[in-house]
Design goal:
alpha+beta, single chain, Ubiquitin-like (UB roll), 23% strand, five-stranded mixed β-sheet
Length: 90
């Protein structure tokens, strides 16, 4: 199982829990499953080219993906995926 942590405001907007579990095998499958559960959520997370939106920080089992990384690549069993709004400023 993969555990997905969504920003609270996104979870509220799409009327879902902020923490979800899925059996996704990779990031693309995860985005497809999230969008199937709550239509439109993938459009909020991804650009048309399949990359995560710039205002998001995505962590997989504690490792941060590069900004605007493609939503692709394997997920290991038991992975935690955190999708957070990027924080900047000073």
């Amino acid at each position: 199982m993969i555990t997905v942590h969504l920003p609270i405001d996104l979870a509220e907007e799409f009327k879902t829990a902020a923490v979800l579990t899925t059996d996704a095998q990779d990031l693309r499958d995860l985005m497809d499953q999230l969008d199937h559960m709550r239509p439109g959520v993938a459009g909020w997370l991804l650009e048309a080219d399949g990359r995560f939106r710039q205002h998001l920080s995505v962590f997989i089992s504690g490792r941060r993906l590069e900004t605007r990384s493609p939503a692709s690549g394997p997920l290991n069993e038991g992975a935690d995926v955190w999708i957070l709004r990027a924080v900047s400023g000073g």
